[in-house]
Specification:
heterodimer, A: 195 residues, alpha+beta, 4 helices, 37% strand, extended, B: mainly alpha
């Protein structure tokens, strides 16, 4: 069957659309693989809660303690929503903290967004690009179940491992009491009976 | 007298006879012709679309079953599964465009499958790699990757889907912090501008069938609804339940009256009623959540798409009365608009009652769906399938809303998809037997 010029043109455009539909997820996969292989891992302390996303499944929402701190900066008039870089350091417990905000990326810095500028104090609240960690459904229900009856004192200390490369970040692991969450679940299987 | 497409042959024939333009024999011949071939062809096409939809459901169910065991799959297996629906639907669309480009049903179905699969692929990859992009960015990317399909494949279904994504993006982006962080595309209805080229294209003759009326009505309604929100929010009137009630009711009436100019074809109304219900159920989560927690401003804003759905419901009720030939559809709209708008206003005014309404609406739709299945199984494939859609969305929404196990949800989707195919095949076979007899 001989195709008309119009059909050939339409099919060519369609193939370009298909290419774009592949390029976006493909670029995401490439970026994430590079980040995981070449990035440096930092551990951030978090407070987990457990919501449910209709489109993307079950995840643990991460409230990073670093998001709640006021971070100083020498830069003036940083605006809400502006993308800047936070220089990271480590506290005595091995958790990553944010020390200072700068405009340009420097060594050991992570991309953050200004969330709430404080009036004339030179200090800013920021948001890190990490706010959730996806879990398999069964694990999420188990974590939720095991944590639901615990009081504030007996809650496990939660943290998230974040790979950082050139300021870009990706969550690579969720920890409870310093161990990978699955290991923690296995260690606390018997706790479920205490409810 | 101005002729509109809302007027059916049944309404026009007596008038033409009275004017002496046609004889009673002519009228009978026309009735006999239009009551058989075109109607059957149309309802069978619709039935075929629903069967395709059922296949999607079964496919979705199978993916859900995989998702239930997601943790046990390696990264490569997850990535392959993420791309599988996209590859299959793209290959199908390519061959449809190459060999059956004039077959609207295949083209629409395949293009819609590609649009849905793009989002599914990105969602699954996002989950695999723990990507923390916002839901708003996800919706925007999905929208931009789907929009070209509407033009290349001349797909009204994809355009409707994209319109849905725009509405979703707007309701997500209405939060002030989201607007600051994610840019202005979903602010103040700007994303609706993406639909303008389609409007121009359709206006200049690029459209086909009655779908230009379908999407145009949707866009007009959504635009009016956004205008209403602006009024409500800017004047702080949402705190006054009675004012809100009257505003919603007035808007519904205005859209109905305008619909005579905008909507060609009665079937558009019945399709809109099904779409409206789907929208109501699929977009209700944010609204109910905000409503439950008592954030009235957010509830008002997030309920925006619900307002448009309420209007669709009002239109559907009016169309239903009109089809019965009672001739008082305007009164039906006034009554329906008043009741449903009042219901929504009450929920907004008393956010604590949101849970009750959520279930009242679900049960109401479920019961109505069963009733319509019972009524239409002998008479109308279109009615039957719309009823099945109602039940499906009622069930689906509550399943998404709770923490029922994934494998169970997957089985329900597979069961329901198989049920749609079975019911359609029984109904079509019964009809053929009737015709043969």
């Amino acid at each position: 069957m001989k195709l008309s010029q119009k059909t050939i043109f339409t099919l060519s455009v369609l193939l370009m659309v298909f290419a774009a539909q592949w390029a976006v997820p493909g670029a995401i996969i490439y970026q994430q693989e590079t980040l995981r292989q070449e990035g440096t891992v930092h551990r951030f302390q978090v407070q987990p809660v457990d919501p449910y996303d209709v489109m993307r499944g079950r995840y643990v929402r991460l409230s990073l303690l670093a998001d709640q701190a006021l971070i100083p900066s020498d830069e003036e008039n940083l605006q809400h929503g502006q993308m800047v870089y936070a220089i990271m350091s480590e506290d005595a417990q091995g958790f990553t903290t944010l020390e200072k905000l700068v405009i340009e990326p420097v060594a050991n810095s992570i991309e953050v967004r200004i969330y709430y500028p404080s009036e004339n104090t030179g200090q800013y609240r920021v948001r890190l690009p990490i706010d959730r960690y996806y879990l398999p459904e069964a694990d999420a229900i188990e974590v939720d179940h095991l944590m639901s009856w615990r009081n504030r004192e007996s809650m496990p200390q939660a943290s998230v491992d974040v790979a950082v490369r050139n300021g870009k970040a990706a969550a690579v692991g969720l920890n409870l009491d310093g161990m990978p969450y699955r290991q923690w679940l296995e260690a606390h299987q018997e706790d479920a009976g205490q409810e | 007298m101005r002729l509109t497409n809302n007027q059916s042959l049944e309404q026009l024939l007596p008038f033409w006879q009275k004017q002496g333009w046609i004889t009673p024999e002519n009228a009978q011949a026309m009735q006999a012709y239009y009551r058989t071939d075109p109607a059957q062809s149309s309802s069978r096409s619709f039935s075929a679309i629903l069967v395709l939809f059922a296949c999607l459901l079964i496919g979705g169910g199978v993916i859900t079953l995989f998702a239930a065991n997601w943790a046990n799959l390696g990264k490569t297996a997850r990535l392959i599964l993420s791309f599988t629906p996209l590859v299959i639907s793209q290959i199908t669309l390519f061959f449809v465009m190459k060999q059956r480009i004039d077959h609207a049903l295949w083209r629409e179905a395949a293009a819609l499958c590609v649009a849905i699969s793009v989002g599914a692929a990105m969602g699954l990859i996002g989950q695999t790699y723990q990507i923390h992009s916002s839901l708003l960015n996800f919706v925007l990317t999905w929208l931009l990757l789907s929009l070209p399909l509407a033009y290349v494949a001349r797909s009204g279904a994809v355009m409707l889907f994209v319109t849905g994504l725009i509405v979703w993006g707007h309701s997500l982006g209405l939060n002030w912090f989201s607007m600051q962080e994610h840019g202005p595309i979903f602010t103040n209805g700007r994303a609706l501008l993406l639909l303008v080229p389609w409007l121009v294209w359709q206006y200049r003759g690029g459209g086909y069938m009655a779908q230009n009326g379908l999407w145009r009505t949707l866009v007009v309604t959504i635009t009016l609804v956004y205008a209403l929100w602006a009024v409500i929010v800017l004047t702080d009137q949402y705190r006054d339940g009675l004012t809100l009630w009257i505003l919603l009711w007035s808007l519904a009436s205005a859209v109905y009256l305008g619909s005579h100019a905008f909507i060609p074809g009665r079937s558009v109304l019945s399709t809109l009623s099904a779409l409206g219900l789907a929208g109501l159920l699929l977009s209700a989560i944010e609204f109910w959540r905000y409503g439950i927690y008592g954030y009235e401003t957010e509830a008002t804003l997030a309920a925006a798409d619900e307002y448009s759905v309420i209007i669709f419901l009002g239109l559907a009720v009016a169309a239903w009365f009109a089809r019965r030939g009672l001739g008082w559809q305007r009164w039906a709209l006034v009554a329906a608009g008043f009741v449903v708008a009042g219901m929504m206003a009450l929920v907004l005014y008393f956010p604590g009652s949101a849970w009750a309404w959520m279930w009242v609406i679900t049960v109401l739709i479920f019961v109505l769906g069963i009733g319509f299945v019972h009524r239409d199984i002998e008479h109308s494939l279109v009615g039957l399938n719309l009823a099945l859609l109602w039940i499906l969305f009622a069930l689906g929404m509550r399943f998404f809303d709770d923490s029922t196990a994934l494998w169970f949800k997957g089985m329900v989707f597979i069961g329901f998809g198989a049920g749609i195919i079975a019911v359609n095949s029984i109904a079509i076979r019964g009809r053929r037997k009737g015709e043969a007899a």
